[in-house]
Amino acid sequence: MTxxxxxxxxxxxxxxxxxxxxxxxxxAAYSGWxxxxxxxxxxxxxxxxxLGAAILARHLLKNDAxxxxxxxxxxxxxxxxxxxxxxxxxxxxxxxEMLEKARLRNVYTQLETGDLLKRLPFAxxxxxxxxAVGVFTQGxxxxxxxxxxxxxAGSGAIMxxxxxxxxWEQLGFKEKxxxxxxxxxxxxxxxxxxxxxxxxxxxxxxxxxxxxxxxxVDSEFIQKISNRKLCQPKASKKNKVYPEGxxx
Length: 248
Description:
Layout: H1 3-18, H2 23-33, H3 37-43, H4 48-59, E1 67-70, H5 76-83, E2 89-93, H6 96-103, E3 110-113, E4 127-131, H7 146-152, E5 153-160, H8 165-170, H9 173-182, E6 186-188, H10 202-209, E7 217-220, H11 223-226, E8 240-242
Parallel strand pairs: 1-2, 1-4, 2-3, 4-5, 6-8
Helix pairs in contact: 1-2, 4-5
């Protein structure tokens, strides 16, 4: 296969996942991409997994803390977290095929299939940290999926949710994040500058970053993490700590 054909194949897969209109088509798109996913996103310089893991590590000092890698895919985030010394990571993904790739990394204590728009197979307040990289974006999970993230995160849990700027501004995440913060459901602790999620992909960069100087690891959610203003969460049971987006 020529370099040009390889580029077209990558673009085709990106179009499928970002253009998905429902859970079934998204699942099918990732299932068909599982074998080549790691190679393809690496060729585009995909930064979200390592940046998200780094942000979480900056705020989670307990190496055996229970961590949910929501939208784990092939385990890119879990691999980085494992390298950083974390030993209790659960993988969750919509695609069984992607999870099988994640299983081969041998970094997860548990792997589960699940849909963030339905009840997840975890009890309330299960995890001490949740990271969801590449999940809350166009064609994927809308802002309603944050409800399940919040439910399974324990009191004072660290939440890292990278978002691209247009997802933050246009898909309802900004409004939800602000409303939840006002209601005391979570608290922003840091926010990163916006940065390019895939610097080697000109089309992707143009599409997603026209109005963005950078990436928040947690879109606006990661703002807590990227401002480098570390705040202590309130003592209420449902107060979660969230970072702001990609921005990291």
